[in-house]
Write a structure and sequence with these properties.
This protein is of the alpha+beta class and about 180 residues long. The protein folds into two domains: about 10-45; about 50-180, Nucleoside Triphosphate Pyrophosphohydrolase. The chain has helices spanning about 90-100, 150-160, 165-180, and strands at about 10-20, 25-30, 35-45, 50-55, 60-65, 70-75, 80, 100-110, 125-135, 145-150.
């Protein structure tokens, strides 16, 4: 018995939907060694960033916004898509500033695939320490963010209550906890 799964070989692929911020792609594949062709669908998107931003007073700079998937308001951390030609750290600084008006000292603390069964992109997590308000929120026409400063001591209760329930935000907060343990 092999200790590794057999890989699938993509015979050809086709874009079946262009959804503006991502494409749905059909990958017609065959298991190594032969067998029938199967079609697997994936979501191809550019990578994105999340930022765990902290003020000198130990507050997390979080945002409230409406999310269409949920059909309601969420409390999450700043983040967004990486623009063409942009490095992840540049995107993190830009998203933090655009969504909150805050700036801080950035460090990359983690990287994951949001869901390897479906997604082809990466999520880069940064921490921004010593954040200060230096400007106005500069949202585009498709989003509205409202800054909420959350004391670190309240974060666990907000997660347990379900107020913070975005899986990728929770992943970023876990990276932040691991970073704090390793220091």
């Amino acid at each position: 018995m092999s200790s590794r799964p057999k890989p699938w070989r993509v015979l050809y692929h086709e874009r079946v939907a262009d959804c503006r911020v991502f494409d749905v792609v059909a990958r017609h594949s065959q298991l190594e060694g032969g067998g029938p062709t199967r079609t697997f669908f994936s979501i191809d998107s550019v990578s994105w960033v999340n930022v765990v931003a902290r003020t000198k007073a130990g507050e997390l700079v979080m945002i409230r916004q409406f999310r269409h998937g949920k059909g309601g308001e969420v409390l999450e951390i700043p983040g967004g898509l990486i623009d063409p030609g942009e490095e992840p750290e540049q995107a993190a600084a830009r998203e933090l500033m655009e969504e909150t008006g805050y700036r801080g000292t950035l460090r990359r603390i983690g990287e994951v695939n949001p869901n390897p069964a479906l997604f082809t992109n990466r999520l880069f997590t940064f921490v921004a320490d010593d954040c200060e308000l230096v400007g106005e929120i500069d949202n585009d026409a498709a989003e509205e963010t409202i800054v909420e400063l959350v004391p670190e001591t309240e974060l666990a209760a907000r997660v347990r209550s379900g107020e913070v329930d975005h899986a990728l935000v929770l992943t970023a907060l876990y990276w932040w906890q691991l970073d704090r343990l390793g220091r």
